[in-house]
Amino acid sequence: MGTRGIRGAVTVEVDMREEIVSATKWLLEEMVSRNEVNPEDIGSIIITTTEDLCATFPAQAARLLEGEAWQYVPLMCAREIPVPGGLPLCIRVMMHVNTDKTAKDIHHVFLRDAVKLRPDLTNRG
């Protein structure tokens, strides 16, 4: 079994704790569901936010997910590089999973305005 990265991103409307946690929870659920990931197989998750999001740590969302395994997933939050013209109000996730899937079998998840980041991956089956 090898390790693969699963990318994900979602945008929020405003910098509010509830919205950040809700959107991050939704994104993590979609990433796990679409890739049939068992939380026990998640090695770690890195979550970044754009500079305009600072109301809370989005990693808190993982602690709200069902299953004891989520309590043991290593999480880290960081700030996204502030590139001029970059997508605002965006939460990005890099989930490292232990899997036998090939790179082409991984389904990356981009929700709301984040579909603009990688339309080539968003429209994939």
Automatic annotation (TrEMBL):
This is chorismate mutase. The gene is aroH. GO terms for biological process: amino acid biosynthetic process; aromatic amino acid family biosynthetic process; chorismate metabolic process. It catalyses: chorismate = prephenate. PROSITE patterns: CHORISMATE_MUT_1. The keyword Amino-acid biosynthesis applies. Its EC number is 5.4.99.5. Pfam families: CM_1. GO terms for molecular function: chorismate mutase activity.
